[in-house]
User: Fold this.
Amino acid sequence: MLLIYITAALISAEAATTTAPIEKAAAPAAELSLTDALVLGVVEGVTEFLPVSSTGHLIIATHFLGLESERPLVDNKGQPLWYRAPSPKHPAGIPLTVKLAADTYSVVIQFGAIAAVALLYWAQLISVVRGLLGRDPSGLRLLQHLMIAFVPAAALGFLFHDWIDAHLFSIPAVIAAQVAGAGLMFYAEAWRRRHRSAQNSTAPIELTARQAADIGALQCLALWPGTSRSMTTIVGGYFSGLEPRRAAEFSFLLGFVTLSAATVYKSYKSGAAMLQVFGWSHVALGAIVAAITAALSVRFLVNWLTRHGLGAFAWYRLGVAALLTALLASGFLQ
Assistant:
């Protein structure tokens, strides 16, 4: 219920600032190829729950796929298509572009990743529902802790969404976030190993409200594209005393809440614009591919963390940062 209330509040706030509906187009205004849809779906599914940053990888993928054009699009009559029609708030209007649609596409296909978590962790989600009905105290506590961890990033994301889009969605920002995230992961893994004797691998996911708030505070770092929501929440779980499997599971459930709210909000804000550019079919394909690959990635991550920890992912992040730096220095990336 709280998630529904927060989502409704975000939608209402956005609706109050929207001055004109998006025009209807008879056919997609630009082409998203089958390959583009498959690549973006795989990248989203594989990286959403791995601690390597789905946003960072999707920024890179859209760059290599050539989906960064900011040329204003027109309909079949040569008339401009508007994301925001001219108004007192936006006198010149905000035209539809392929880049705007691709950025929204990358968020909307997260519905596939959300579905994967719902399928794999249906028992915990049913427990939450039973908790809402007063039939499962542990499910109610889990819901309370998820909401406590969800609110900080949701609030900051809502307040600073436009600033983040304007200043942090770039290759250099992703490089810096990959390096910073790797450093945090190395530190967290060393910290966990020093405190391993205090962790109980058979303990259920039971946190205090303070520990949930600490995980939520770390999740705020994931607003920096390239950092990784999964990484910050798993690291937060480590620092809260959870062993790797439990930290990952809480991260997945928190991701279900966070991604649901973010995807509903982004779909409301820009979904119609994206469909006007790309159409329905490849959006559905991307979400389906993301669901399948996300389910496989979740299973892989739980097993990997139990045996090996976060170290390999930290080295991977440094490798990605080095590769991007080289491509940027060579002029291949702009």
Residues 1-26, 200-205 have pLDDT under 50 and may be disordered.
